[in-house]
Amino acid sequence: MRTAPFASLRSLFAISDEQAMWRVQSHDDEHAFAQLVRRWEGPIQRLGARMTGDAHHGEDLAQETFARVFAKRKDYQPSGKFSTWLWRIALNLCYDELRRRQRREESSLDGMCGEAVAALEAFVAPEPPPDKSLVDQERSELVRSALMQLSEAYRTVLVLRHYENLKFREIAGVLEVPEGTVKSRMAEALTQMGRLLKPMLAVEAKRNLNRDSQPKESLMI
User: Fold this and answer.
1) Residue 150: exposed, middle, or buried by beta-carbon count in 10 A (0-12, 13-18, 19+)?
2) Where does 28-133 have alpha helices with state H?
3) Does residue 98 sit in the same domain as residue 118?
4) Which domain holds residue 112?
5) Residues 186 and 133 in one domain
6) Which of 30, 93, 95, 213 has the greatest number of beta carbons closer than 10 A?
7) Is 192 within a domain?
């Protein structure tokens, strides 16, 4: 029957990540692997871009992540959640990339700024709309710059929680640390973001004020 192939295709798309990975692990199933790539390529690219501060590196890291997944398919434990295993592989590659760049570690900062959290929440959307205003672009750059000044441990929990919407227990599973450790790192990450963003936002506000105070040219008709 002509509908049989489509029924089979629907069945493939309906399988879970764990089932797809089992097919990859047991039968080197290319279709199942392609399904996993389609589902997770976007989130892994975003993770790489935010952890390294470079969209191109995000794409490269995503490709390397899935190459590593396939290469290490026999190491996957079916009893575990595929996404946890995938996030862990991707993060380890991000850490390797950051170490290769020999980024300087930033000193710890104290304090908390409520507007920093609000600014961070404003940029949760993975892809900005095409008509994003200049002001929003500037603020986005401020947040990105501050994020890159966090140490790996704090940046990791902030990206996974605020940008990828993982729960604290899920992050704990990815990082293999207690949930309480994740929460404390999150609090410190927000504290540092607050201290970093406060002077940046103050400079931006002053620049916008000066821009608005300039005399506007009369409209020519």
Assistant:
1) buried
2) 30-52, 55-71, 82-101, 114-121
3) no
4) 106-213
5) yes
6) 93
7) yes
Which single residue is written with the structure tokens 């079916």?
78
The pTM score is: 0.67
In which element (H, E) is residue 9 found?
Answer: helix 3-14
Q: Each residue of 120-145: pLDDT tens digit?
A: 655 544 444 444 455 566 677 888 88
Span 188-211, pLDDT tens digits: 999 999 888 887 666 666 665 565
Say if residues 196 and 107 touch (Cβ distance below 8 Å). no
Angle ∠(59,91,125) on CA atoms, nearest 5: 60
Structural domain total, the chain: 2
Nearest to 32 by CA among 23, 41, 42: 23
Please report the pLDDT score of residue 67 as a whole number. 96
Contact between 190 and 112 (Cβ < 8 Å): yes
CA 91 – CA 98 distance, rounded (Å): 10
The Cα–Cα gap between 98 and 92 comes to 10
Task: Compute, in degrees rounded to 10, the torsion defined by CA atoms 149, 150, 151, 154.
Answer: -170
Report angle CA 96, 25, 86 to the nearest 5 degrees. 35
- Is the same domain home to 77 and 55? yes
